[in-house]
Amino acid sequence: MQILLRGGRVLDPGTDTDAVRDVLVRDGRVAAVGPGLPAPDGAAVLDVSGLVVGPGFVDLHSHVHTIAGQRLQAFDGVTTALDLEAGLMPVTRAYADAAREGRPLNYGFSASWGAARAQAHLGVEPDASMASTLALLGDPGWQRTSSPAELRTWLSLLERELADGALGIGILMGYAPRSDPAEFLAVARLAAAAGAPTYTHVRELVEADPTTPVDGAEELVRAAAETGAAMHHCHVNSTSRRHVDRVLGMLAKAQGEGSRITVEAYPYGAGSTGIGAFFLAPERLPAWGIQPSDIVVLETGERIADAARLREVRASDAGAECLVEFLDEDKPADRDLLRQALAYPDAIVASDAMPIVWGQGAYDSREWPLPPGGSTHPRTAGTFTKTLRLMVRETGTWSWLEAFRRCSYLPARVLDAIAPGARAKGQLGVGADADLVVLDPDRVTDTATYFDSTRPSAGIHHLLVGGTPVIRDGQLRTDAYPGRPLRGEPV
């Protein structure tokens, strides 16, 4: 298949190119970039004048291992959606399931620290599903400090997962925040020895919980310095909240001293997780500066009335997806905190996209438009387009080229060492993967809201994955499943 994109504003953060050019795609790769390229015989020619053409967005933090969720992410400009914070286990099954079912977007998984601990502590055999991961979050059995034998067991499981193609190690430390910090160092040493990145949801900050075994941000900084591991700080906006100044200052100092730390953020004032998470216990909420009424159950829309009701829901369905309102986007000071996290030098945009639920355990659908009644966090549908609207069009904080650097180029570079296939992503050099997004710079925006959360974003004209159109002329190709795995190759 050959496609010629004619006359668009081409943005290539790999070469700092921002110019009107043509882009020729052949056999899943970028074959040529330049002005006035001739159209080969049989090539489809798309007039993209007035539109922006760039490398598709690489999302390092997506939990939507489904066709429905990936289709929403396609309209957000994403061409590669990876679950690296939580991961799935066993990765061999996760990759096999995705290949068998088909995926619109490229996909990949980290080794799941939480699932490995659950197997070592509880004998729970993981099934490589997000539903089981959410249910696991509220089980205290895997959250405690490991015995020496348990530690050896789950470290060995993580080693096996890396050997089987995991893209590093995903560490949900925030969900086991009373565990011994020595265990985090053990994981970092393992990752450093394997040449694999870690992706951490850090434990609580000391300002929120003075009794924490170690400040979450400080723990990550120490581990990076002591082990030399490449350490990615997940959603710094939601874990830092109103202490983002201190956290970003600490990270900047560590980076300046040579630590291999990368940072991600998303542009929403509410998070989403399983309601049984450790930090959503009623007695823990004051540490977050929130109350039960700041928690909303996604499937039912119920806003939790009080601590008694929260305990009841956590006991009956610990894996129920919920919204957690930690910043008020209607307040200028809180909006500034979100922008501050995104504006941090080299901060990567990542969605933390969540599964779509329809009730009765339904997480997926091949129907398009999506069946009514589905709910998720709006970041599933709108993280990247909302960031473009806020950071480029409305505030001018970033240029368009810088936006593609944050959304495409930098996330791909996080993976270069562990996954050689990533080197062909996030840029438009000849030979690069033809993962491309074509968008209207004046119209691109999110449309999903917290309570109308499955509305696709607007302004994406074309989306190519491996040279195959998933979106063409603004319409989803429902027969397109060109997604391919991105696998790790540890040293």
Describe the protein's architecture and organization.
This protein has a single domain, classed as Metal-dependent hydrolases (TIM Barrel). It has helices at 67-74, 91-101, 113-122, 130-136, 148-163, 181-194, 216-227, 236-240, 244-256, 285-288, 307-316, 332-343, 379-394, 400-414; strands at residues 2-12, 17-26, 29-34, 44-47, 52-55, 57-59, 78-83, 106-109, 111-112, 169-171, 198-200, 231-233, 261-265, 270-274, 295-297, 321-325, 348-349, 436-439, 460-465, 468-472, 475-476. The strands form four sheets. Strands 1, 2, 3, 4, 5, 18, 19, 20 and 21 form a nine-stranded mixed beta sheet that branches. β1 and β2 form a beta hairpin. The protein contains 14 helices and 21 strands. The mean pLDDT is 95. By secondary structure, the protein is of the alpha/beta class. The relative contact order is 0.18.
* Secondary structure tally: strands: 21
Q: Please work out how many helical segments DSSP would assign.
A: 14
* Biggest sheet details: 9 strands, mixed
In round numbers, the mean pLDDT is 95
Protein name: Amidohydrolase family protein
Keywords: Hydrolase
GO molecular function: hydrolase activity, acting on carbon-nitrogen (but not peptide) bonds
Domain Amidohydrolase: 45-470
Name the features.
single chain; 491 residues; alpha/beta; TIM Barrel; nine-stranded mixed β-sheet; six-stranded parallel β-sheet; 21 strands; 20% strand
Topology of this protein?
Elements: E1 2-12, E2 17-26, E3 29-34, E4 44-47, E5 52-55, E6 57-59, H1 67-74, E7 78-83, H2 91-101, E8 106-109, E9 111-112, H3 113-122, H4 130-136, H5 148-163, E10 169-171, H6 181-194, E11 198-200, H7 216-227, E12 231-233, H8 236-240, H9 244-256, E13 261-265, E14 270-274, H10 285-288, E15 295-297, H11 307-316, E16 321-325, H12 332-343, E17 348-349, H13 379-394, H14 400-414, E18 436-439, E19 460-465, E20 468-472, E21 475-476
Parallel strand pairs: 1-4, 1-5, 6-7, 7-8, 9-10, 10-11, 11-12, 12-13, 13-17
Antiparallel strand pairs: 1-2, 2-3, 5-18, 14-16, 15-16, 18-19, 19-20, 20-21
